[in-house]
Amino acid sequence: MKVLLKTKNLRVPEYVLYDKNKFEIESEHYLKKLVEPLAFPVFVKPIDNCAASYCETIINFETLLAWAKQVAFDDQNYEIDEYIEGTLYHIDSAVQQGHVIYTAIGEYLAPLHVLAEGKNIGTMPLLPEHGPWKDLVDYNKTIVSLMNAPDGMTHLEVFVTCKNDIVFLEIASRPGGGLIPPTHRHNFNFDIYYAHCQLSMNEKFCIDSHVPETFTGGVFFPKREGRVLALSKPTLCSEYEIQWHVTLGDVIKRSTNISPLTNSFAGTLRLYNADYQKLRDDYLSFVDFQATDIRPEKNALTTN
User: Which of 208, 195, 180, 188 has its CA nearest to residue 96?
Assistant: First the structure.
């Protein structure tokens, strides 16, 4: 897909494929030659995994060398990417007979891999009158057409840089996961799972989307390694609800990916507000918010 997009002059992160066998033979010489086209920091990720597993930002060559030694015997195949600075968006669309018949856009709180760094992640809706909405809708149509998407939902992720360049990250012929389905249902009266099933089976499908009385966004809190000493509640203008997945006194391991199957989150927060801008202000306040107070523990048994 990346090769195709580059032939269409659509920007994708520069990348190189990492070969463990060559590193085993040539060590540092191979690694230095491999990353010559890139500048640090770089981003390493598997080419055949999901949920931001095994993803990591590498700040210099010494850290890259240590990473290469660390992953030498795991079962992943990796690429090393240009590091992109920007805001990450997801574009979820319904496709029928090659045409995009529905599009909704969400703004991620941060790139999803930062959950493993102890930072919050989340999503909230981007409305047509805000930010790069129109450019992203048009870009999505181009990508869906190029990939010849089958009937069903697509989930596209892109960065928008400070220069307003759109940089392709990935796309899949499936609905988005995590907090995306419930926020879609609330914000747009649109069930992306139901839509995917109906469209995939060529069933008759009607769209009844609308703008709600209140908007919602959601945030996942990371697990940071150690003993949980306190659970913090935010001070917000918006109404909110928190579901905690840890309790006081738990000894926990840090989040390593965003999969709910791996019990990755310390807590889940949903916030609601009829005023879109107030919701957005509250949502962005979670960039630096820490939901748990953690004390490092040595040689303690994990309880959660």
Answer: 195
Enter the tokens of residue 101.
């018949």
Nearest Cα to 196, choosing from 146, 138, 155, 158?
155
Tokens of 157: 């992720």
Q: What is the pTM of this model?
A: 0.93
CA–centroid distance for 135 within its chain? 20
CA distance 182 to 122: 12
Question: Tokens 């010849």, residue?
Answer: 148
Residue 142, both tokens? 């181009």
Query: 70-129 pLDDT, tens per residue?
Result: 999 999 999 999 999 999 999 999 999 999 999 999 999 999 999 999 999 999 999 998
> Torsion angle, CA of 4/7/9/13, rounded to 10 degrees?
50
Helix (H) or strand (E) segment spanning residue 32: helix 28-34
Using one digit for the tens of pLDDT, what is the confidence trace for 157-212?
A: 999 999 999 999 999 999 999 999 999 999 999 999 999 999 999 887 778 777 78
Q: Which residues contact 302 (CB under 8 A, 6 or more apart)?
A: 251, 252, 253
Q: Is the dihedral of CA 246, 249, 251, 254 positive or negative?
A: positive
One-character DSSP codes across 148-202: TPPSEEEEEEEEE-TT--EEEEEEESS---TTHHHHHHHHHS--HHHHHHHHHTT
